[in-house]
Amino acid sequence: MAAGDDARDVIPFVGLTGGIGAGKSEALAALERLGAATLSSDAVVHDILATEDAREALVERLGEEVAPGGEVDRGAVARAVFGDAEAREWLEGYLWPRVGERIAAWRGELAARQPRPRAAIVEVPLLFESGMEGVFDKTLAVVADDGLRAERIGVRGHEGVESREERQLDQHEKASRADFSVRNDGSVAELEQELSRVLGTMES
């Protein structure tokens, strides 16, 4: 097999990021419709927090209030680490290695998937802040007008938004660091068209 064929057989591994309210989840869904395999690191965190091991570790470190009724409450966890750098670092140290293991396992399963995915894309809100960009072949940032982002955040009622915003780079900084960026100010169809263009570039 020629070297060029080998290159085409490799599924691009892509980190997707963006500011709160920019529409990362919407972009991830569009990318899946376009033939990419997708994974949300937030969904992985949710699964990890649902385990008994995680509940026990979080209760021991952060207190019983983070798991009322025996199940971890993500909002309570966010409140517990808000303004407490040491607690937040502990939480990230607990979660990120486990998230990384889950992502690696998911990626390893894709080679056998039929039809072959156009790309393997993982949504990572703190992609650059956590230094994870080096794990991926390419990075993609979703950006949107600040007013529109504020509207979306208001509608969703995100808990702990201020804490999350403080820890994140400005969305334009994310875009400047990423290999690709797309705007999500218009319709879903327009977003999908932009993402289709990006996927085509990755595949060429």
The biggest sheet, with number of strands, parallel, antiparallel or mixed sense and barrel status, is: 5 strands, parallel
Order of helices and strands: HEHEHHHHEEHHHEH
Q: Strands of the biggest beta sheet: in what spatial order?
A: 2-3-1-4-5
Number of helices: 10
- The proportion of strand residues reads 5-15%
Q: Kindly provide the radius of gyration, computed on alpha-carbon positions and rounded to a whole number of angstroms.
A: 18 Å
> Which oligomerization state do the chains in this entry correspond to?
single chain
Q: What percent of residues adopt helix (DSSP H or I)?
A: 40-55%
Average per-residue pLDDT, rounded, comes to 87
Q: What structural category arises from helix and sheet content?
A: alpha/beta
Shape call: globular
How many strands in all?
Answer: 5
Our measurement of the CA-to-CA distance between the termini, rounded to an integer number of angstroms, reads 18 Å
Instruction: List low-confidence stretches.
Output: 1-7, 159-163
